[in-house]
Amino acid sequence: MTWRKTQHLHFIDAPDAMSTPDLNLLVTLDVLLAEGSVARAARRLRLSPSAMSRALARLRETTGDPLLVRAGRGLVPTPRAIELRERVGQLVQDAEAVLRPVEALRLAQLVRTFTLRTSEGFVENFGPELIARVGAEAPGVRLCFVQKPDKDSTPLRDGIVDLETGVVGKTTAPELRVQALFRDRFVGVVHRDHPLNQGEITPARYAAGRHICVSRQGLRRGPIDEALSALGLEREIVTIVGGFSTALALARASDLIASVPARHTGNLRAGMHSFPLPVSTPEITVSLLWHPRLDADPAHHWLRGHVRAVCAGASANA
Question: What DSSP state is assigned to residue 283?
């Protein structure tokens, strides 16, 4: 049994090469699919074009698919190659992570920007403490918060985003790592001089007010409306906004009623009157999401710990 070396990884050749594929070919396949060119892949792996052509021939024989076919002066991937591209890339990244020695995390010298995709309410409520915590330990680390218009997992898959917070939905990619941060419930919020600041808030009184609906998709109905409908009631939706902080800003400056998650908006509701909803609605679980490729990254692990700690503190004080 002998060792064979590639540009990036080390694998052991199996005694019976006919029954066990050469795992070194995974690196070659990953680079070929990424470059879409035999010449560019050869330069990247520091091989001759003829050696890369032979490797492609072996890949075609092993997979039973041409993988890359001629189109004009270039090469285009086959459907099988497109199907394999992401899987092969992840396999190579995982193998490299296994074989890479773990380096001690030196926070004082760490220079890195982490991109977090969150709702605007999350940033305004948890951002100040998170930034302070990170800056105290790693002054060279920057947090870049980007808006979350939907639940599409592509930014996490593509590495554009390092972390994401939100409620796990049906469109959330199954391979993502998910860790619950806190459970939340909806409350009603009005300005201090609003009529709902006094007396018992019954379902009828609540429904009779003028309401703000929060929906990124512009929907007019949700769990609150379903609960009211079961009682034969319907609320008047005056306006629809895309975020909780926007809803609270409108409620603070008008007679409108905002219905928002309590822990998610704790700091944003300061100086306003909050009350439990007079109808039963399901709790939501706000989670932290990241791609498996970053699971073992020491700096990423450190940041995840701070996000959890900030949210746990806010939950305890809610």
Answer: -
